From TrEMBL:
It is found in: Cytoplasm, Cytoskeleton. SMART domains: PH (SM00233), RhoGEF (SM00325). Residues 222-314 form the PH domain. It comes from Erpornis zantholeuca. The keyword Cytoplasm applies. The keyword Zinc-finger applies. GO terms for molecular function: guanyl-nucleotide exchange factor activity; zinc ion binding. GO terms for biological process: cytoskeleton organization; filopodium assembly. It comes from the Eukaryota. The lineage of its organism: Eukaryota, Metazoa, Chordata, Craniata, Vertebrata. This is FGD2 protein. It holds the Pfam family SOS1_NGEF_PH.
Amino acid sequence: MQEPEEKKIALELLETEQAYVNRLHLLDQVFYAELMKEAKTGKTVPEEVVKMIFSNISSIYQFHAEFFLPELRKRMEDWNRNPRIGDVIQKLAPFLKMYGEYVKNFDKAVELITAWSEKSPPFQELIADIQKRKVCANLTLQHHMLEPVQRIPRYELLLKDYVRKLPPQSPDRGDAEKALEMIFMVAKHSNAAIAEMERLQNLWVVYQRLGLEDDIVDPSNELIKEGPIQKISTRNNSTSEKYLFLFNNMLLYCVPKVIQVGAEFQVHLRMDVEGMKVRELKDTEFPHTFLVSGKQRTLELQARSGDEMNAWIK
């Protein structure tokens, strides 16, 4: 008799989960454990670095090896009597939020492996030695570390397929649909965590370019637009090169530094966005000009083109 489609997908979930747990075992019990053991002798790399590379892989490994895989296996052994996996996946979904931390840390981890492989030959040798083992299947540590990053999207795909193939009257339909929704939310949570990390990293880079002025550094700020601009001086009818950073709450009017040591710009003026007015000026001598007036003062600025002016005004 032909196996029903939904059972095939459930079996694929179990098989890939078994392979995944083996991969997590390799990361946590082999790479992490052995690098940590060496780090404790103080010869290869600081313990802190090893911890930073592997993030919370131990919790992820324990959860899958001790809870999710055994639960899934029990379900599949009992399939003919009770064909369902939706409820088990509902139990799994909230724990997948643990991945947010691992995924956020991934790029940093790969950078650390590269940097310390150059700095510490014994560290590099130990990784190379583990990579030669049969269990590594000729793949690098970085390659194995990518697996948890890709696991949640994999659950989502398999579960989507499973729900699609379920007969309408299946006892698992309600649970499976709810589980899919939960997995979808977790995937979104993981993506949001990455987006937030990128936002903060980009913000930090901007603050460094501005010389880390303490009244400007605020993690809740959002950079909306930045770019060069000409400042019009009505006194002597000339323009000079300036640079603007527009945040959600303030406009920084800056001067590019000639000698770039540390900061790239010097903040000349900080204007509050609250109460600010912006309008286009029809100036025949200086095209693409607009006026920004705020509590602090009024600036007459010239963009390089009409489009650029409109982008700033917007």
